[in-house]
């Protein structure tokens, strides 16, 4: 099973980084709106074992993903996990199938992602309802080399999930606990319209 390594950079100006990636001739892979449903069993048994079961829809394409901790010890400098992904032809049917075998939606989240390829890394410029982040994916050496090349080393990094960062954000802001993080209907419509014009 392939291992995926990633590291998040917090508070990066996405517009500035976007322009920098254009200047260095990075490969632009598209910008899209993502809707995600995270499934679990009653009692959150998957979460307790560190497993994520996610159904994602982006640009009309659905993807089912399982992420789990690797069986062998790995570096603590980046987030490392085993990932299995497969395309799904019918989002609604897969949703019904998961629910039919006892999985429920634990939480939902949305983001706008612009994806780039540069120096053996995938860069994801992510706009979430509670902030902007950059996620670098690749092997550990490539991640740190790419970050240095693009001037990202000045930013705080984290291996936490967006789910965990959302919980921390809501606590810090004195907001009611809510595991889901989605855009308001008006903001969602605006973002979808903006992306549709690109």
TrEMBL record:
InterPro entries membership:
Adenylyl_cyclase_CyaB, CYTH-like_dom_sf, CYTH_domain
Judging by the UniProt lineage, the source's domain of life is: Bacteria
Give one Pfam hit by family name.
CYTH
- CYTH domain sequence ranges: 2-168
Q: What is this protein called?
A: CYTH domain protein
What species is given as this protein's source? Pseudodesulfovibrio profundus
